[in-house]
Write a structure and sequence with these properties.
This protein has four helices and eleven strands, in the order E-H-H-E-E-E-E-H-E-H-E-E-E-E-E. By secondary structure, it is of the alpha+beta class. The chain is globular and about 50 Å long.
Length: 172
């Protein structure tokens, strides 16, 4: 079996979530594809908007018109993805898909290596890097797929949940 890598698929604008749903449905119907197409993602980012004088945080697509796939590239997976409704093609020269490099994936928040941790929910942790450096909090939730811990921090006099990478924290 080949190694799974991240690939980028171009879609019609506004069809990103439909393409994701269609590929996931195809994987569900064809069990042999579940071992080859591991994850389908539409990268989102939180954006603060001002509406009627109120600040509102909304999620927007980081790359409108694109979907990320973690998959083993072979003729079957290429054919399934390429012939999914809404997909216009893979990103790469001609019809040859090019996988993303580690450097390209890092700003997307996609981790390829799993970080082992020595804390569980309810433990106190200290943030040692990033924008929340020197913050201490209690772990509320652990997300192993995203390699993040959610802690509550005090922000403007309120407890606010913040998601922090496993790499940026240590147990107290």
């Amino acid at each position: 079996m080949a190694e799974a890598k991240w690939y980028v698929v171009h879609t019609y604008s506004g069809y990103e979530n439909k393409v994701k749903a269609n590929i996931e449905k195809t994987i569900e119907n064809n069990k042999h594809l579940a071992e080859q197409i591991l994850e389908v993602r539409v990268p989102l980012q939180d954006v603060v908007e001002m509406k009627n004088g109120a600040r509102k945080t909304v999620q927007k697509k980081m790359f409108p018109g694109y979907v990320l796939l973690n998959m083993e590239m072979n003729d079957d997976t290429w054919y399934v993805v390429r012939n999914t409704r809404g997909v216009t093609g893979f990103v790469g020269p001609g019809s040859k898909p090019v996988p993303l490099t580690e450097a390209e994936m890092k700003p997307l928040g996609i981790k390829t290596e799993n970080i082992s941790i020595d804390f569980v929910e309810g433990d106190s942790i200290a943030v040692v890097a990033g924008i929340w450096k020197d913050t201490v909090g209690v772990v509320q939730k652990l997300d192993y797929s995203k390699q993040t811990a959610t802690i509550n921090v005090e922000l403007f006099g309120r407890e606010t949940p913040v998601e922090i990478s496993f790499a940026e924290v240590r147990k107290l």
